[in-house]
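Please describe our next protein:
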Amino acid sequence: MNAQFLPFPLNVYALTLELEFGGFEHLHFGVFDDQVQPHGNYSSAQQQAQDELSSLLLPAPAAILEIGFGTGAFAKTLARQGYQLTALSGIKEEVDAVQGVDANGVDFVHSSLAQFKSERRFDVVLVQQSAQYFDALELLAFAMGVLKEGGQLLIADEFTLDDSEIRPEPRPALVSFLQLAERCGFAVQRQRELGRQVAPGLRIFRELLLKHHRAVIQALALTQAQFDELSKNLETLACKYEEVRLSYTLLDFKKDSGSQGEGRFGSINAFAVNEIPPLFDKSFDALFDAEIWQWKYGNGRGRAVCVRDDEKLLAHYGGAPRDILYFGKKAKALQICDVMVLPEYRSFVSRETLFFKTAATLLEQQVGNCAEHLLGFGFPNQRVLRVAQRLGLYDVTDRFIEIDYPQDENIAVAGTFTVEVFNHAEASVSSQVNALWENMAESFADNIIGVRDWNYLQYRYFQHPLWGCGGYECLALRGVNDSKLKALAFLKPHEGGRLLMDIIGDVQQFPELIAALHAHLFERSLSLRTRITLAHAQALSLDGSRQHDLGIEIPCNIWTRGPAADTLKNAWWLTAGDMDFL
């Protein structure tokens, strides 16, 4: 196999081994004994890793489907031992590299999991250092579909062990992966931890990489920055193994379909949009809107866990990612939305219900200290929230209230602002709006707020399906003397008046800005209301305004490890614009 045909960073690994040892058979780092072996035994350490894996396999002539075969060497070895091998890779370069050479009876296939079709059912699905690159739900559902009853799923990969600190980590948490595997119908048979034995090989390889750095950079046309980053990552990875923050784990699962319960778990890719309406219509007092669904989840924006049978969706638990400032630092949150369970499965009393299983699965996959999203939040009704609290999924951080502003002729307005329709198509608006947001963001160093920059506002309002039919309006508030943009206000028709969805500007000026907006609407014979988390209500209140409790509490995730509820209490700035269904 020509190293230069492989994608980065596999090409770097392959070429480094070729330069040092004259060739390479495997692209993984190997398993070392307690004493660090000399460089000359690097290949024997790689062989040790293969032997550890082989020792767990069902006996030949079992039919094996290997996912992510690397050089293909292990697949060929197993084929020579009498196994029936199909080796699958989504990387075209890997498949191209093994075509036209002696395949030893291995059927090498270029395909994604979703596109792979086979009438055959396999005895074993083997995944070596590839599981972390797949959506866990997709991988487990795929393995469940192609394995025979009682078949073996054998995984060797890196997993996160320590999620006690805020530290984004792309590798799945081991405890969550094991829970998910059980929900998907797999029973763990054996588990081996080899992280400390893998760590020495990372440092040895890093030494080899530095030794051959000029040749590697030149042959593969790398930048120095790419090389330095890869070298740094190797050292970081070795430290994580030694500190037991990461594990290198061999997992031996048995397919046990009887443990799946009511249906099969899947991700957002496990259903089509046209399957949603029956579930949606039975879950909410509203008709399904395909345009809104596409706006919310389309083009890779959404996250979801579903449960289905062969004919229909039984449950869905969705989430919409949101960029946030977490006490002044950039982070991500997942807004929970579209929690749906068919009436005949709508039991909330225990952790054996579809509600709990879908909720726990989404949180485990998406939310926590080491996950893509640090926080989860939403606007559930009180019944759902109380159930989630009892099941240990959520806690409460604040309440959502509505503020009504008095509509009379004696509204006091300072007269320092003018109000006009905002032309969002002008070329210079993005920089003006971003300047407003940056000024506003400085006031939230001690709080949590969703980013409201130009890109977000475009998506949330101007690209929303309701924008074109008058569902929202955007007003610009400018200084009377300099006509400079001071704030933007987004409003929605609501009960004969307007609901203030969002306001972006100087927080210290919000009372004056609200008063000017209020006066403008009064001239149009329109009332004004807004919604805000209770802890921040004062910022949007005026003399004579009234607060009404909406019966909506703001939850936070407590199922996976993340910031404590006490840390988040009264910290969220959330307005009506943060609600996905308004």
Remarks:
- The CA atoms of residues 337 and 580 lie 7 Å apart.
